[in-house]
Design a protein that fits this description.
With 444 residues, the chain is mainly beta. Helix content is 7%, strand content 44%. It is built from six helices and 30 strands. The strands form seven sheets. Strands 6, 7, 8, 9, 10, 11, 12 and 13 form an eight-stranded antiparallel beta sheet that branches. A four-stranded antiparallel beta sheet has the order 3-2-1-30. The radius of gyration is 20 Å and the shape is globular. The two termini are 39 Å apart.
Length: 444
């Protein structure tokens, strides 16, 4: 079990802009996690019925972790690439490697608590056939200065990013800071400390929990996904997997290194993974994945009003929507909640329920039934779909969903969903092993 989130910001989930839609093609960049690659998928090829259930829409497999020496042999380091963020100019992608440059044996023995890296990908080179199965598209690496990195969100001006760390060295628990990354120099310039939780036991616990579930989780926020609203001069929202709440943080104070950058905490049903901001910056959607104390999955998506989060945090959660099921007692383990570009709908993935929901935002805030459509995702071989990450094309026509159980190399799948008919229009196989997050970019 990965105690991460996603990754996830509006940009990490794939909402990007392009100057000339008429000349642009959509490509998806999917994390391949245990195969230590990211996959470039051509949307047009994925929509071709002749390619359904095949890897034919994959145009490149990009290596993102370097070779290392182990016992005198050269091997590919096990980075566990999990989260992807696309720069606003569509020129670079940032791939968060949960275990950095760890040896394959160390990552396989315990997937948490490793020093992380972020790989910077040149998106022009990502489309070059010469980059296939090589490091040729890698433009550099960012040392995260933390352990178990997860979410990565890029500020609107493209100059800074926020990076979450869900863990401490050697342990799945213990993450207690957000990093500010300068994207010109590709280095961490601030480590912003977060408050402890208030779990009702000695905090920090001794010892710190090594792995989840553990009843001593709840002291450290263990932030997974992050997103940024432009309101308030820039406001960071972090999905805290350890404390079952959301961090609200001033971006300006975090960049400046000022005290009091973390402004508030907003309680939610369960520890989150995927979190995103609406196109107008006024709302945040949070997927309540599971409790790290009990391992009980959640089954709701929370909608947060950004202005209330800044002025009256106790009233900021304006809706809590049951997702993936109509039975409140049924756990569905929501993974990601992503706004569509129209801002009127949210798409959520449900790992246990093997389906996705499309939510009407206005109806959710009004307190009424809000699920527009529930779509079951099916694999070509009949295995559970286990949906995780979401990327949505800028025109709002299609969503790409990652999933399939952890297994052998290239065992993951990407589903392409038509957001007008809510029908699956293509399934791309061969997407690494246990694919997590996915982004979308455009190129001529």
């Amino acid at each position: 079990m990965l105690r991460t989130t996603l990754l996830c910001s509006a940009m990490a989930l794939g909402f990007t802009a392009y100057a000339d839609r008429g000349m642009a093609k959509d490509y998806f960049l999917a994390s391949g996690r245990w195969d230590n690659v990211v996959l470039v998928i051509d949307l047009d090829k994925a929509l071709d019925p002749a390619n359904d259930g095949t890897p034919k829409a994959v145009v490149n497999r990009l290596r993102v972790t370097p070779d290392i020496e182990v016992d005198g042999k050269t091997v590919i380091s096990s980075g566990q690439p999990i989260s992807i963020a696309i720069a606003p100019d569509n020129k670079r992608a940032y791939v968060v490697n949960h275990s950095g440059r760890s040896t394959p044996a160390a990552a396989a023995a315990f997937q948490h608590g490793h020093a992380g890296t972020v790989t910077v990908i040149d998106l022009v080179k990502a489309l070059d056939p010469a980059s296939n199965d090589t490091l040729a598209a890698v433009a550099g690496y960012i040392e995260t200065e933390g352990f178990g990195p997860t979410g990565f969100a890029i500020a609107a001006d493209g100059k800074h990013a926020v990076l979450a760390h869900a863990e401490r060295e050697g342990d799945e628990d213990g993450g207690r800071h957000l990093s500010i990354v300068d994207l010109a120099s590709n280095r961490v310039i601030r480590r912003v400390e977060q408050a402890y939780g208030k779990p009702g036991f000695p905090c920090p616990p001794d010892p710190v929990p090594h792995r989840a579930p553990d009843p001593k989780f709840g002291c450290f926020p263990d932030t997974n996904g992050v997103t940024i609203s432009p309101l308030g001069g820039g406001t960071i929202f972090g999905a805290n997997g350890g404390t079952d709440d959301i961090t609200v943080m001033s971006l300006q104070k975090a960049i400046a290194g000022e005290a009091g950058a973390e402004l508030a905490r907003i309680p939610v049903q369960a520890g989150g993974f995927g979190i995103s901001v609406s196109p107008d910056g006024r709302l945040v959607a949070h997927a309540s994945r599971e409790s790290a104390q009990t391992d009980i999955p959640g089954n709701t998506v929370s909608i947060i009003d950004v202005e209330k989060a800044l002025s009256d945090p106790a009233k900021a959660e304006v809706a809590r929507v049951l997702v993936g099921t109509d039975d409140k007692a049924t756990p569905t383990r929501p993974f990601v909640a992503a706004f569509l570009p129209d801002g009127k709908r949210i798409l959520s993935t449900h790992f246990r329920a093997n389906n996705i929901d499309i939510i009407d935002v206005a109806k959710a805030i009004a307190g009424g039934p809000a699920t527009i459509r529930r779509v079951e995702l099916k694999t070509p071989g009949g295995e559970p779909s286990r949906p995780r990450g979401i990327a949505i094309t800028p025109d709002g026509k299609y969503a790409a969903i990652t999933g399939a159980p952890k297994g052998k190399p290239n065992s993951s799948i990407v589903w392409i969903v038509d957001l007008a008919s809510y029908e699956v229009k293509g399934r791309v196989t061969g997407i690494g092993n246990e694919s997590y997050m996915i982004g979308v970019f455009q190129a001529p």
